[in-house]
Design goal:
Length: 476
């Protein structure tokens, strides 16, 4: 049982003893008035009622517990947040703290994991909340009665093992200072600051992350945050960085030069929708254990160049949507990409409308099953090398080259399409395409070839190399 609960229980016992004494003394007083009992008898009764030893013992228990608690409390362990209340916020429930259990309730997530600790109980027991130096009862929400800036201080009696979701969806925070937060034992920071949409400043100068394993969604949707200093971050034990900076729409640069990622297995959507990001140096990233990279740079629309030549992708299984809608990207260095275990490449380069050249001659696609929309809307692409592509297990090629309207020729002579079921609009909108080598194309299992060459205005039947009559008939 927590020392704080014991302390409260002992206080309740003392209150009960005192209440009993007061009741008995009142009864004696009433009896003396009504029956004129000799005062000496009343005094003897009082001595009998007030057992000094009982009271002393109870006080001793309480003071022992008080000392025990005091020895645990780190009065320097606190977090300070600032909140700016607008007129629209007055007398409304404003979230000031959260927990994983509360997050699941709010978002109707009913998944239960018996191995999960209950950080709601931990936070409620260990956190004292002050607003403008006034202690308030613990609550996830607070109603502010006046416009203005408020300081919220969170004092922690003991360290927290899990801080996941602790400030998730605190949408009104304008700043948060974590430099005095002792989080040395914390191992989970899932969604810690997710959805802090108004957050402009964050101080992480003394933040200790040495034992953290999960940073998934840690800064997700902090869409007003323009700068973040992660120079003190120790990520040597982190395994999950999924969506870590997802939706940080105002960040223009992130310095991750100190990040140790050798244990990370999940980088899904790590920088997804970082719309303002213009520079990203990942040369120190160790990705030897990463298995999932889907959506990693999705909609990084301001990123013009990215060098991933240091990436070890030998264990990666999913690369779908990896660069989708990176429409400012003019070059990507993927020369060291090992794709031998990748199974999903759907929409991998979709919407990379500024790329002019793609050399994927090192790609091993023997296990890939889905290439749908892979190069869709690469509108500036004039050259593409797919000479190493092994497509024997691919089942979906929908929209694969659609709207690549500057490509004049594509050599797909090495393509094995025996297991492909859909080629819908595969070359649709390739308006400059004049030459196409489909010599090994087989459509025997294809069930949908509709609009395969739609709007291929420059393509003539004579310039299409194929043995497949169904393809020839589409070109008639």
């Amino acid at each position: 049982m927590s020392s704080y609960i014991e302390f409260n229980n002992e206080l309740d016992k003392l209150n009960k003893i005192i209440d009993d004494i007061i009741t008995k003394l009142k009864n004696i007083k009433d009896n003396m008035k009504s029956s004129n009992i000799n005062n000496k008898i009343g005094i003897l009764d009082i001595k009998e009622i007030i057992n000094q030893n009982d009271i002393n013992e109870q006080f001793k228990n309480i003071m022992n517990l008080y000392d025990k608690i005091n020895n645990k409390i780190d009065y320097n362990n606190y977090i300070i947040a600032e909140i700016d209340i607008k007129e629209k916020d007055i007398n409304k429930d404003i979230r000031i703290i959260n927990s994983y259990e509360e997050y699941k309730r709010k978002n109707q997530i009913w998944r239960e994991d018996e191995n999960e600790l209950n950080n709601e109980k931990e936070i409620k027991e260990k956190c004292t909340i002050q607003i403008n130096n006034k202690i308030i009862p613990f609550s996830y929400y607070f109603k502010f009665s006046q416009i203005g800036k408020y300081q919220i201080k969170y004092i922690f009696k003991e360290q927290l093992k899990r801080v996941d979701c602790i400030f998730s969806e605190c949408e009104s925070f304008s700043s948060i200072n974590l430099c005095n937060f002792n989080n040395q034992i914390a191992n989970n920071m899932l969604y810690m600051l997710k959805g802090c949409k108004s957050l402009l400043n964050i101080n992480l100068s003394n933040f200790n992350t040495q034992n953290v394993r999960n940073m998934s969604g840690m800064f997700q949707d902090c869409e007003s945050l323009a700068n973040i200093n992660l120079s003190t971050f120790n990520t040597e034990n982190v395994t999950n960085m999924q969506s870590m900076f997802r939706g940080c729409k105002s960040l223009t640069n992130i310095n991750l030069s100190n990040f140790n990622t050798h244990k990370v297995t999940n980088m899904i959507a790590m920088f997804k929708e970082c719309n303002s990001l213009t520079n990203l140096n990942l040369s120190n990233f160790n990705t030897q254990n990463v298995t999932r990279m889907s959506y990693m740079f999705y909609e990084c629309v301001s990123l013009s160049n990215i060098d991933l030549s240091s990436f070890n992708t030998s264990k990666v299984k999913s690369m779908d949507h990896l660069f989708t809608h990176c429409n400012s990207l003019t070059s990507i260095n993927l020369s060291n990409f090992n794709t031998q275990n990748v199974t999903y490449m759907a929409e991998m380069f979709r919407g990379c409308s500024s790329i002019t050249n793609l050399n994927l001659s090192n790609f091993n696609t023997q296990n890939v099953t889905d290439m749908a929309w892979m190069f869709d809307c690469c509108k500036s692409l004039t050259n593409i090398n797919l000479s190493s592509f092994n497509t024997q297990n691919v089942t979906d090629m929908n929209y694969m080259f659609s709207a690549c309207n500057l490509l004049t020729s594509i050599n797909l002579s090495n393509f094995n399409t025996q297991n492909v079921k859909s080629m819908y609009y595969i070359f649709g909108g390739c308006s400059s395409l004049a030459y196409l080598n489909l010599s090994n194309f087989s459509t025997q299992n294809v069930t949908d070839m509709k609009d395969m060459f739609r709007m291929c205005h420059s393509l003539k039947k004579i310039n299409v190399i194929t043995k497949d009559n169904k393809i020839l008939n589409l070109l008639a």
